[in-house]
Amino acid sequence: MSLPVLTHCPYCSLQCGMTVAARAEDDGGGWEVEGANFPTNRGGLCEKGRSSAELLAHPDRLTTPLVRDSRREPFREATWDEALDRVATALRDTQQRYGADAAGLFGGGGMTNEKAYQAGKFVRVALRSASIDYNGRFCMSSAAAAATKAFGVDRGMPFPLADIARADTVLLVGSNPGDTMPPAMRWFAAGRERGATHLVVDPRYTASAAAADVHLQPVPGTDLALANGLLHLAIKHRLVDTAYVAERTTGWDAVRRAMRQYWPDRVERITGVPVRVMERAVRLLAESRATMILSGRGAEQHAHGSDTALAWINLALALGLPGRPYSGWATMTGQGNGQGGREHGQKADQLPGYRMLADPAARAHVAAVWGVDPDELPRPGVSAYEMLDRLGTDGGVRALMVMASNVVVSAPRADHVRERLGALDLLVVSDLFLSETAALADVVLPCTQWAEEEGTMTNVEGRVLRRRRAVEAPDGVRSDLDVLADLAGRLGRGQYFSADPQTVFDELRRASAGGKADYAGISWARIEAERGVFWPCPDEDHPGTPRMFRGAGEGAERSSTRGYFATPDGRARFHVVHHREPAETPDGEYPYRLTTGRSRAHYQSGTQTRRTKALLDAEPEPVVEIHPDLAARLGVADGADVLLRSRRGRARMRARLASTIRADTVFAPFHWAGEQTINALTNPALDPASRMPEFKVCAVDITAAPAGEDTTA
Ligand code: SF4
């Protein structure tokens, strides 16, 4: 194998290009990574990417399947044959006893496109079950639902990341790339050097807010009212692009009338954002040549997150932004394959290419590619939290496979999820390490990781990339792609599956052909030659689509043959959406708001980053951010342990006093386990359209923790 090999970071959706090379023995041996000159990161890596080589020779790495006959017993090592026979037998027995849907799979947004596709096909064709969903439901689903309603298609960013540098005004809503994807900040910095103005909407004064010109600091859960308030002001000051609205959209009159309810004083009372700040913000957004509105999980992870995303899209449409050069609305996806992972059948209601499982034509197309009868395909299943909530119950999943996900840390109401996992007849977890979820399993399967495998990922921009093998996987480790094909064989359906990633990708191309996320023209060879290809790309002569919604007459990059957008009539759709209180608001027993998110040095459930020395040195434990005024009322000193309680659970962590957060709100990261699992507190209230849980706000109580003992037990 020639080294160094160009591949991409194992972590977030920026998918920074990096090289992996063997380090000289006299320099300590092992592996090292360096940032590559890729179009998104131009050589930059954050501390997570820079330290990712530590994962490649980690002493905790699983290299043998583990099994046990009872959860009271310790694991013992097993051969792959024993482990997979046990899984196949249990899946078959469970289905015979309880029905096809009693066997299921919970996937992850970090899986390659090939694995995500294979997982969806495995559940529908090998298990003939409806029970599949994945942790991306907890990440992006509200923005995806909103974009599909408004534009007819969900590609998180409908333009390349580098366009940010060409925008004159950028509004970030509930997104903090300054901490979560620092190399992306080069494009923001380049814009500011050109004289661009940046605004940030966030209850916290984040790294991104510190780099901006204007910070709007709303009460958590009130972003929708803020967006409507800004649209009210745009109408009042005649800043709406009426020609754009007339030519490219539908539904404006109803939205215009509905905005009468969002007069500035009322919006200030709801959001806490002063009217003068809103007035300044709307002028900046409306009066620049090129304006972008970029949304993130802060706006979206709510029980009304899809309506909130629609409210910001309404504002973008009224100002005439989507489809204009260096302008538009976008959402910054979080997980490494957050975009591709949601396009190819890992969601409960979807088939590859963003086709819908309930659509007869979609079923017929995909069934023909798979070589099965469309009537064999199951109906749509339930979403991620709903699946977890019903584990082990009548009508719920009884035998569950978990891949690329650590749900006892990352799911809301985490203690309840742990309890439901305990009610399963079979839990199988595939992971690199013995994660907190794997530690509960009956069977643990050791899988390959990023630099040990071939495949594709689709980054935050919709650019399909090649993940390349740079390192041989340790003996005993297998790819999830291979494991699913093997299991399908043991279930008597092996003829439909391949373990070869390029063969699987070529089948994915055919399955996605003609769908909204059309990969038909994207080959591995093209990705290599062109440094990634943007979907939709319907044939090999098509250049790919870096910029969507441009319309006829502005180049060949049309999203629809009927107009600018991928809706039936080619027009974007306005939607009337109204402010609602979060599912849970502070009261006498739980008087404060908790909001959660990512921190700079750690990633998702921390399975990898909590095992990385450089990242633990940088951030050895979680801290809860508390405003000094609130801390004084609580009698909590900086660095003291506090106990946080909600109606669902408790967590304990150290306090960091920060005058940059609202005094009625505390923030904690969600990367930690045990008594530091903040998701023990979060609220699983679901958005009606996206089924996204309300991670971003719940009511809590906070007290100084007694020293020493574990008070969360
Ligand atoms: Fe990796 Fe994301 Fe950091 Fe880039 S920004 S190095 S992709 S974690």
How does this structure look, described?
The protein is an alpha/beta fold and 713 residues long. It has four domains: 5-57, ADC-like domains (N-terminal domain of TfIIb); 66-139 and 337-524, Rossmann fold (3-Layer(aba) Sandwich); 141-332, Dimethylsulfoxide Reductase, domain 2 (3-Layer(aba) Sandwich), CATH 3.40.228; 592-704, Barwin-like endoglucanases (Beta Barrel). The protein contains 23 helices and 30 strands. The strands form eight sheets. A seven-stranded mixed sheet has the order 5-4-18-17-16-6-7, with helices on one face. A six-stranded mixed sheet has the order 24-26-25-30-23-27. Strand 6, helix 3 and strand 7 (132-134) form a beta-alpha-beta unit. The longest helix has 19 residues, at 80-98. The chain is globular, with a radius of gyration of 24 Å. Iron/sulfur cluster is lined by residues 9, 11-12, 14-16, 41, 45-46, 48-49, 181, 183. The site of iron/sulfur cluster has 13 residues, from helix 1.
Structural class: alpha/beta
In CATH, the topology of the largest domain is named Rossmann fold
Name of the level-1 CATH class of the largest domain: Alpha Beta
Q: Order of strands in the sheet with the most strands?
A: 5-4-18-17-16-6-7
Mean pLDDT: 93
Which segments are poorly predicted (pLDDT under 50) over 5 or more consecutive residues?
553-561
Helical amount:
25-40%
Rough shape?
Answer: globular
Question: How many structural domains in the coordinates?
Answer: 4
The DSSP helix count reads: 23
Ligands present? iron/sulfur cluster
Q: Approximately how much beta-strand content do the residues carry?
A: 15-25%
> How does the major sheet shape up?
7 strands, mixed
Radius of gyration: 24 Å
CATH 2nd-level architecture of the largest domain: 3-Layer(aba) Sandwich
Count of strand segments: 30
| Spatial separation of the terminal alpha carbons | 50 Å
